[in-house]
Design brief:
CATH topology: Rossmann fold
Strand content: 5-15%
Oligomer: single chain
CATH superfamily: 5'-nuclease
CATH class: Alpha Beta
Radius of gyration: 16 Å
Structural class: mainly alpha
Helix content: 55-70%
Number of domains: 1
Number of helices: 9
Strand order of the largest sheet: 1-2
Order of helices and strands: HHEHHEHEHEHHH
Number of strands: 4
Distance between the termini: 31 Å
Shape: globular
Length: 164
């Protein structure tokens, strides 16, 4: 189950395929897909093609949004698309989500769902040998130039872990 930022940043890095190689299939709530695809089309980002190819190949699958009658505790603090990441994950009994957004990650943990973000995917890929340590370092170093927001100290900690 994926939120927008992980998909966007991995596509920008040229590493979206890591998700297929690590998870076989990734679900994206319809509201997240509609947030990502029209946004990238409007501004003519090349990563839209990569996302659409992944969707056409079937390993990146769009899941219908979940409708709820009763308010859910986390919905007041999150955007509608973030709500859907958690609602669809709960409905499908998914225990791990792909998310960078801190409030979404906190809400996921409160529901017993483990979040992993863009940096975590790169680190896990290096650990599994899906990426070399050098490829993971290069990707981490490029993230801030692509608009990824993380503290300098956090990035340095992970770069050191990779031997930079």
């Amino acid at each position: 189950m994926a939120d927008a930022s992980v998909l966007i940043f991995l596509a920008k890095l040229g590493h979206l395929d890591l998700l297929r190689r690590m998870f076989k299939q990734v679900l994206v709530p319809r509201s997240v897909w509609e947030e990502v695809v029209p946004q990238t089309r409007r501004t003519d980002f090349p990563e839209i093609r990569v996302l659409e190819e992944a969707s056409s190949a079937g390993w990146l699958a769009v899941a219908p949004d979940v409708t709820v009658r009763d308010p859910v505790p986390f919905t007041n603090a999150l955007h509608a698309a973030d709500d859907q990441v958690l609602l669809v994950a709960r409905a499908k009994r998914i225990r791990r989500i792909l998310a960078d957004d801190a409030p979404l990650r906190r809400a996921a943990r409160s529901l017993g769902i483990a979040p992993i973000g863009t940096i975590g995917i790169l680190m896990e890929a290096a650990s599994l040998g899906v990426l070399t340590r050098r490829e993971a370092r290069d990707a981490l170093e490029r993230l801030p130039t692509l608009g990824f927001r993380a503290s300098h100290d956090l990035l340095l900690r992970f770069l050191r872990e990779l031997g930079a």
